[in-house]
Amino acid sequence: MRMAFQLQTSGSTAQSQTQPSSNFSFGDYQTEGFYDEMFLSDNQVRPGYLPFFQRVEQLTRNELISRQHAAERALMSMGITFNVYAEGEGTERIMPIDIIPRIIEAQEWNRLEQGLIQRIKALNLFIDDVYNDQHILNDGIVPRDLIESSKCYLPACLGLKPPKGIWCHITGTDLIRGEDAQYMVLEDNLRCPSGVSYMLENRELTKQTFPEVLAHTGVRPVSDYPTRLLQMLQHIADRPDPNVVVLTPGIYNSAYFEHSYLAQQMGVELVDSRDLVVSGGYVKMRTTKGFEIVDVIYRRIDDTFIDPKVFNPDSLIGVPGLMDVYKKGRVALANAPGTGVADDKVIYAYVPRIIKYYLNEDPIIPNVKTYICREEEDCRYVLENIEQLVVKEANEAGGYGMLIGPKATKADHDLFREKIKANPRNYIAQPTISLSRVPCIVDDHAEGRHVDLRPYILYGDGINVIPGGLTRVALRKGSLVVNSSQGGGGKDTWVLY
User: What kind and span of H or E run contains 391?
Assistant: First the structure.
């Protein structure tokens, strides 16, 4: 893989030598009033970006463009793809990479790390409470009917006690910041957060694209994520040297590449429902040597599909009887079933209160201002000001079920007004925030594109925030939608020591 990438880069560079080109320059780059991760408002380079900036401006325009094209070809040759489903047909695409990294300085990252640890600790306590003692509901901090009406609340999980008391083992928390430079949590992803394979491969590509910069810049590594993930999965098992598997819905799932990639990187088996069976009170895996007991399942299947005997009886991708084995403590699941209740975007609005209730602390990273449409005053405000707001369905993801008011048509506004009136519980709204931007290579120059950040957090023997994450980019000019399924791409995220 690396040899092919280097050869392609070398060939492109040789061609550029026969076609003289001026050095690449950020001289015409405009911040345009947005918070820019690389440049101050007067176009001075932020300190963390200086080594990168100085190296890039030593390259010719053709050299930099050839490196961008080589990275794109490498993604395709490595098969790093995802599926987009539209009108019943699946389309396989690469997630585009822009080779200009997003750089976060140490002090800034340390605060984000503290805030994410605080949030995960509180959410884990919340999920455990919801399915057990329900103190937070009895005390009226979170309305009981809000929980019980959530699509992701699973009564079958009442009384569950997951191994080591951990529910949310792997989390991808989406962060943004606007014009005031303050980081905010946009949403929590505690069911089956995806994208970590792109984080890892983006770093590998950056190592090959800018080896000289990385060699002289103190960037914290992310390549040990599979090792940390495996250690976390082993930690939640009761047996020594546990047998760990990754459970995938199958090759047609949009994130199948990631499932197979992580299994391969951890050195564990990738299985689907056909490979597993409940027998003799245990989950067992079919092998060429017979059945083997499975101790830990990293599931990449939504809660309601994992066991057709308990949840969706029509599920063909689950394992019948799995939940019974889980309840008896004979297999560990990551993430634990039921964690999705904290993914509900209406519950998100209560997280600051959740943090205060369980930890007696104010949130280190605030939420985005959120209007809860089930509350009459908030609903009235949303209906009257929908043109200026972002409206989201409570349990949708991937950029679906969302209205960006300033960019939508009057017909779209009217449609969402009717949806909200019909089912106010299912909607929240937030101000339209001009996300921060990072320069991207567009044709032969740099233009600003809006970004968010998805750090990954592992909860095993302590809470471990991976130093970086996936920076997602809205590659369409002016777009605020960063999801890959909606035309977004990715950047490598450098966290400095």
Answer: strand 389-393
Pairing of strands 276-279, 81-86: unpaired
CB 129 within 8 A of CB 303: no
Instruction: Give the Cα separation of 162 and 150 in Å (integer).
Output: 21
What backbone phi and psi angles, to 5 degrees, belong to 416?
Answer: -70, -30
The answer to whether residues 441 and 64 touch, using CB atoms and an 8 Å cutoff, is: yes
Q: CATH 3.30.1490.270 region(s) of the chain?
A: 371-431
Q: What interhelical angle do 351-359 and 106-130 show, nearest 10? A: 80
Condensed to tens digits (0 to 9), the pLDDT of residues 446-492 reads: 999 999 999 999 999 999 999 999 999 999 998 888 876 667 899 99
| Whole-number average pLDDT of the chain | 91
- Token pair listed for 84: 């987009």
How many CA atoms are closer than 13 Å to the CA of 405, on its beta-carbon side? Answer: 21
Question: Quick one: which of 351, 353, 284, 346 has its CA closest to 320?
Answer: 284
Q: Show Cβ contacts of residue 304 under 8 Å, excluding neighbours closer than 6 positions.
A: 154, 311, 312, 315
Cα(178)–Cα(452) distance, rounded to whole angstroms?
A: 10
DSSP state letter for 87 = T
Q: In a 10 Å sphere around its CB, with 0-12 CB exposed, 13-18 middle and 19+ buried, how is residue 384 labelled? A: exposed
Which residue in the block uniquely carries the two structure tokens 């140490």? 106
Within 159-273, where are the H helices?
196-209, 211-215, 225-235, 256-266
Assigned token pair, 411: 């017909």
Buried b (16+ CB within 10 A) or exposed e, 146-162: bbeebebbbebbeebeb
Q: Which CATH class is domain 371-431?
A: alpha beta
Contact between 375 and 363 (Cβ < 8 Å): no
One-letter amino acid for residue 224 of the chain:
D
Model confidence at 10, pLDDT cuts 50, 70, 90, reads: very low
Residue range 36-63, pLDDT digits in tens:
999 998 999 999 999 999 999 999 999 9
Token duo for residue 54: 């100085």
Whole-model pTM?
A: 0.91
Record the tokens describing residue 240, joined without a space: 């020594």
Buried b or exposed e, range 319-346, using 16+ CB within 10 angstroms = bbbbbebbbeebbbbbbbbbbbbbbbbb
206 DSSP 8-state letter:
H
Entry field: residues in the chain: 497
What average pLDDT score do residues 6-35 get? Answer: 66
Q: Which residue has the tokens 């634990």?
A: 336
% of the chain with per-residue pLDDT over 70:
91
Q: Determine the pLDDT at residue 84.
A: 55
- The crossing angle, in degrees rounded to 10, of helices 196-209 and 2-18 is 50
Tokens found for residue 271: 């299985």
Residue 444 carries which side chain, given as an amino acid letter? D
In contact, 480 and 450? CB cutoff 8 Å: yes
Strand-pairing partners, residue 390, are 404, 430
